[in-house]
Amino acid sequence: MAEIGWLDPTSPSADDATVHRAWERFVRGEDDLRGVRPEVAISWQRCRDQHGVDPYLTEAPAAVTQVNHALEHDVVIAELGFRAASLAHEVSHIGGIVTITDGVGRVLAQWGDQATRTVAAKANLAPWFCWAEGATGTNGMGTALLSYTPVLVRRSEHWCAAFHDWTCGGVAIRDVVTRDPVATLNISCWRSDLPAAAGTWLGNIAKMTQRILRQHAQNDGAELIAAFSQARAGSKVPLAAVDPAGKVVLADDTAAVLLGIPGSTPRPIPPSGGNRNCPNSSKPPSTPRNRRHTIPTGSARRRSSRGSPTNRHR
Question: Which of 46, 99, 100, 249 fits a 20 to 30 Å CA distance from 121?
Fold first, then answer.
């Protein structure tokens, strides 16, 4: 994850004036995006045509107060906060700030240069506000939530004109099973570029934080195999187990034939590596990722018993 897709902040690219002219054309409804990096152009397209974000928005909206997520997300965010805080000293020396968000773009904490934090507060780049792309346009945090690689957003590449003095680099921490974002880490500088080392900083912290999720998934997989074996011993119907992403990870021989997959072979944990608006009360809560099910594939479908490891809330 460390630097895949990361553009060196000091490398040459289309000058900001060229990007700004493309931005002016695009917000008027034209589709001429010459001089704009592809990942930024795609984000602008979402902002204008899918999210309908006002390009003249001057500050981020307030975040909703309640979001349902698994306990392990809190553990990951706490670890990420610890590591982000340890980076604050280096970032402060370049006049920058470090920010973390949860998986829906709500800013949770911020460290760094006090003068820059004061400027950031005027745009609500601060805790209690939402920086999901669908709420605040193209930016390091919100766009990272929709990307599987680190994201760099320079000045006029931001969708909202009020943020054109900022340069931001962000990376999402993702669940290793579902690939859903759990949190983001972001570095921002006002009226200056990020240092060349920013990509390495982000990647290293993300990789270290992701280990928590990977280890947890491996432990969970071992519990699932044990629960599957127990359920299989007393079952007379075809039996399969699915992960939180809905993929079959284990099946007995009969179920394997019906599903067209190898029988009794666990699927390995994948390597680490929509519309992500801030949620609102009208959306149904997502299913917690900790619910792994052992399911008979016949007409009588049932979940494993509440006390089994496959249905244990973490």
Answer: 46
List the Cα angle 145/151/154 in 5-degree steps: 125
| CA–CA dist 64, 53 (Å, integer) | 18
Query: Residues for the chain: how many in total?
Result: 314
Distance CA 219, CA 217 (A): 5
User: What are 216-238's pLDDT values in tens digits?
Assistant: 677 777 777 777 777 878 777 88
Reference 72, options 200, 187, 176; nearest CA is: 176
Task: Say which residues have a Cβ less than 8 Å from residue 123's Cβ, sequence separation at least 6.
Answer: 58, 59, 60, 162, 163
Buried b (16+ CB within 10 A) or exposed e, 139-155: bbbbbbbbbebbbbbbb
The neighbour count for residue 100, using CB atoms within 10 Å, is: 26
Give the tens place of pLDDT for each residue, 288-301.
444 444 444 443 33
Share of the chain above pLDDT 90, in %: 55
Please give the Cα distance from 174 to 191 (Å, whole number).
30
* Superfamily of domain 16-212, CATH level 4: GAF domain (3.30.450.40)
58 contacts: CB under 8 Å, gap ≥ 6: 123, 160, 162
Tokens describing residue 220: 């969970």
Report the b/e string of 195-231 with b at 16+ CB within 10 A.
beebbebbbbbbbebbebbbebbeebbeebbebbebb
Hey, where are the domains in the chain?
16-212, 219-311
**C-alpha dihedral sign at 264, 265, 270, 275:** negative
Strand locations in 81-226 (E)? 96-102, 107-112, 151-154, 166-174, 181-190
